C-alpha cells in the first residue's frame, strides 16, 4: 500500500476508534509496526494533532475537540491545482497570496519526485490573458467580502469611455470574470433592477451597514451572459431576427463562428459559408466593426444593408484618420 494510503488509513482509524496502539494499527493494516511509526510521524509533521500516551492503557489518539477533514492529493489532482492557479493569477484573482500559500503547503510535504513534477507542471503550462492592474485588487477584495457577508455597497461608477460618474447603491450578488474583465452583478437601487458593473469602471466604493438577502439559486454568470447576448428567438416565429450569410476563407469563418456573439447566432455552417440569425441592434452596432478585422478574407452575401453599413463605417473611419 502506498505511503499516502497508509497515512489516510491510520488517520481514519484514529478518528473512528479513539485510543489505539501502534501494534493494533499494524495488525489492522497488515503492515510492520515501524510503518505505523513513520505514518504517525508524517501526520504530525503535516499538522495533525496526534497525542501519544505511554503505559498500560496508553496509545495514540486525536482529541475530540479537533475536527479533521484530511485531504490527500494524487498526482493528477496536484497538477490540476497548479494549472488552475496559473489561470487564476492571470485573471487578476484578488486572493493570489492565499493561493500561493496553499500551493506552498502542497510542495512542503511533497516528496522530491513529487516536487520536481509539480515544478515542471508550473513551467510547462502558461496562460496569457489581459492582466488586471494591481489597483483593482483592493476593489475586488472588498467586493468579494461584501458578496460573502451580504453587505450593501455605495459605488462611484463611470458609464462608457466618456460617461459621467454616478453614485449607485447596490447589493452585490456575485463576481464574474469574462473576456479579460471583472464584473460585479447585483441589485442597483438607482435603476431598481439587477445590473452588471465593470469593476475597472468603479472609481470608489464604500461599505454600507445594512445587509440584504441574495435571491436563492441566483447565478451572476447566467445573468451576465443573458444581458450581453441576444435571445436566439425573441419572437415565437423568429420574425425579429435578420438572416446574415457570410462566405470566405474557412479559417476566417472558424474565427468568426467562435466569437461570443456569432457563435450563439450561428444557424448553419459549411466549409466556405456561415448562416447566422441576428437581432438588428447587434447587427448594425457591434457586428460591422468586428467584420472589418477580417479584411478581404470574408464576403457579406446578405443582407445588402449590412454591406452598405460596412462601407459607410469604412468611409467614415477613412475621413477621420485623414483629417
Automatic annotation (TrEMBL):
SUPFAM superfamilies with a match to the protein in the record: Winged helix' DNA-binding domain
Helix-turn-helix type domain mapped to chain residues: 10-60
PROSITE patterns: WYL
Annotated ranges, domain WYL: 139-204
Pfam (any one): HTH_11
Gene3D superfamilies per record: Winged helix-like DNA-binding domain superfamily/Winged helix DNA-binding domain (1.10.10.10)
InterPro entries: CBASS_pafABC_assoc_protein, HTH_11, PafC-like, WH-like_DNA-bd_sf, WH_DNA-bd_sf, WYL_dom
Protein name listed in UniProt: YafY family transcriptional regulator
